[in-house]
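User: Teach me something about this protein's shape.
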Amino acid sequence: MEDLDREKLAGFWREVGVASDQNLALKAPKRVEGLFLTLSGSNLTVKAAYNNSGSCETENIVGSEIDVSGKFAFPGHREIHVLDTDYQGYAILRVSLRWNNRDFHAFKYFTRSLEDDDPPGFWKFRELTADTGLYLAARAGRCAKVLKQVSLGP
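Assistant: First, the predicted structure itself:
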């Protein structure tokens, strides 16, 4: 994405959908439900809320923007690339990681809302990932709700 306004990307995001041609990316026991993004200089801090077999867990990771606008590298051979966003309703990310000497990639669709899937953004996600193969639609989970409440306050 050219000319990404990183400051507008900050805040809460709920994972709504995942697309990947790799089954492992869709069947992980530890599923992301929500993200809270903060920026400081070229660094992006991601507070992720996971549902791990019914239990909520959070993880904080700090990455830094690399050569391409909207592409961030994180420890553990992980990258996040912002492919498209309107900042207020949806964001489409490409997430890459290296695990057991193999590269895994998934496209992820996020919205700001705990309830709404932002249909125009979701159609963009479907168009972008039409050749990807496997899809998974997420349900609004309690881990995402807790992350939003804790991160934004009462």
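Now, about its shape. The radius of gyration is 14 Å. The mean pLDDT is 85. If you'd like, I can walk through any region in more detail.
User: That's plenty for now, thanks!
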